[in-house]
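Hi W.,

Here's what went into the run:
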Amino acid sequence: MAFDQTLEGQLYLGIDGGGSKCRATLYNNKLDVLGTGVAGRANPLFGLEQTFESILASTEMALRDAGLSLNDASLLVAGLGLAGVNVPRLLADVQAWQHPFKTMYVTSDLHTACIGAHQGGDGAVIITGTGSCGYVHVGDESLSLGGHGFALGDKGSGAWLGLRAAEHVLLQLDGFAEPTALTERLFANLGVSDALGIVENLAGRSSSCYATLAREVFAAADEGDKVAVGILREGAAYISEMARKLFTLEPARFSMIGGLAEPLQKWLDADVVARLEPSLAAPETGAVLFAIQQHNKQSAA
Amino acid sequence: MAFDQTLEGQLYLGIDGGGSKCRATLYNNKLDVLGTGVAGRANPLFGLEQTFESILASTEMALRDAGLSLNDASLLVAGLGLAGVNVPRLLADVQAWQHPFKTMYVTSDLHTACIGAHQGGDGAVIITGTGSCGYVHVGDESLSLGGHGFALGDKGSGAWLGLRAAEHVLLQLDGFAEPTALTERLFANLGVSDALGIVENLAGRSSSCYATLAREVFAAADEGDKVAVGILREGAAYISEMARKLFTLEPARFSMIGGLAEPLQKWLDADVVARLEPSLAAPETGAVLFAIQQHNKQSAA
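Here's what came out:
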């Protein structure tokens, strides 16, 4: 997609909304960044009102960052990549929103991340941060894998690593599982000294809270802790298998993004790592490229 | 404990509060049931206000059932067995409550369940319903195992069986795991036809919601489904190991209670099943026996 297809003087907003936060970036028609904003989670699966609030809050921040105000939202062509809208009912709910934008185009956060990673071109992407999921888009074909959310799925993600570590430590403290350096690491990380302390800190908490424990799993594994190594191997094996499933559509490019993309790399299979290429642009840029693409389609029609 | 230690004309209230509901039973000093009530969940870990509301709502139902009103709560010696109060901060929170009773004695739901199962005597108990946990009390010694809550622990529980089934089905639908009869069973149970339908029905839901899927695991295993058999074997192995750990305190009696006690039995190890004895009284009765025991101690002091 060529940027000269954008309209002179038009402002664009890219939204990347997920289970832990919502990022908004304001661009001019050359895709220069004019302002950025970040707010709370924007996953319609966990609340439509909160999603809209997070979108508006991050948009307002991005507009102010550029010397504008929320009133100027009516000038914006907005592209929204949101978690959860692969559920048709939730996509319809978001599309029915009385939004403040000039026009609004909505798709999944996976789709916009993939468009961003390959700067508008075809390709495959795996996102491993708080959650985990994969997406590939080649011509008219696409495939989405994983992304079922915590604690149902998201194997190999930060939240999954944290949950598996906490599960093992609680079993170990009751005498059901082998000792692990994760026990002392979780105690120190949470500032507690027994199983009750762990439960009190984690019970009913969000996936983001569990994901903060992932660094302990990587650190313990680096020191040779067998339990941490076992957890990481299981998670990484799933991510490697996911990559190979995405490769069946023969994408020209493959990137991994998210906070765990770098630390997970050494645990992935060599054939997967060999195909890794850098992500070219952020998911918010992908959201804007998606909006421009849709806007041009509609203008041409 | 002899019932003639109770006070002539005194009314007693037994509360069994957990993650899915709160049961209240009103007794006279012969431990005849005068009235019963049930309300929503009463686990301080998930909200103190809700816990107090559920206790009051179930108490009011039990009092009305006996032809009394909530104003008569001031006549009651109340025993409360509550989930979550093994966390010292939460026990203190509950004990600081401006409760409406004549006197109130609080302990864990595990403790009162154990007292009930053995009619006030020493013994061991495993509770497998929505959650799973074990408790043994012999003389001055006691041991509590598991009960760390969904999705941190509670292996072998209804919620754990349901989560494991849903996890496997979602992996299977993405092509990561072997086929299983659980897929069609979960579709039918939830009234959906794809992975998104499962996610939409289960994401962010309570442990009780997951526990409703446990029956599909038992049914599929009965028909020989390998995946269901594997899940049940793993859960049951944990429960059997928990029982043997409780036996180290040499309890005179051992009972299992909760909705899964009966269906799980055929999956448990023979040495554990051989020691199973019927539960003699309900956890609410255990709560009252605890209150009477504490009340007599204080009166004697």
